[in-house]
Amino acid sequence: MPFYAFKQIEVGSIAAGNTASGSWTADDDYTIKKVFVKEVTETAVGLQFLNCTLRVDNYTFTKDEVRAILLSGWQNQVPELNIPFGKGQTFYYSITNEHSASAIEPVIILELEK
Q1: Strand partners, 8
Q2: What's the CATH number of domain 3-113, 3.40.190.10, 2.60.40.1180, 3.30.505.50, 2.60.120.230?
């Protein structure tokens, strides 16, 4: 399948010890090729402090949770997922900041194919 688009999901700032969660519902039929997590905090704290749980509807593809740093590399460093993501299906995320003092602001970027 050819590349179609990137979808950026703004998570917002997550205070130390807190969790942010949200979702995005597909507006067309896609395949999620890759998921990236990037930090946009003004002073980079580090994605190694963020634990993510990611799923599409009832399919949780993080098997409990994974460190966001796994999904933070360059294009060729992030695992290829190829998850079917049909119109009306929902991508859910939950991200916990385990840093002892600093807030962290991540964004999630879905690489979509059609």
Answers
A1: 109
A2: 2.60.120.230
Q: Is 100 exposed, middle or buried (0-12, 13-18, 19+ CB in 10 A)?
A: exposed
Q: Which of 90, 67, 71, 89 is nearest to 80 (CA)?
A: 71
For the whole prediction, is pTM greater than 0.90?
Answer: yes
Question: Residue-wise pLDDT tens for the chain (114 aa)?
Answer: 688 999 999 999 999 999 999 999 999 999 999 999 999 988 889 999 999 999 999 999 998 899 999 999 877 889 999 999 999 999 999 999 999 999 999 999 999 999
For tokens 């602001």, name the residue: 105
In this structure, are strands 30-39 and 83-85 parallel, antiparallel, or unpaired?
antiparallel
DSSP-derived 3-state class of residue 18: coil
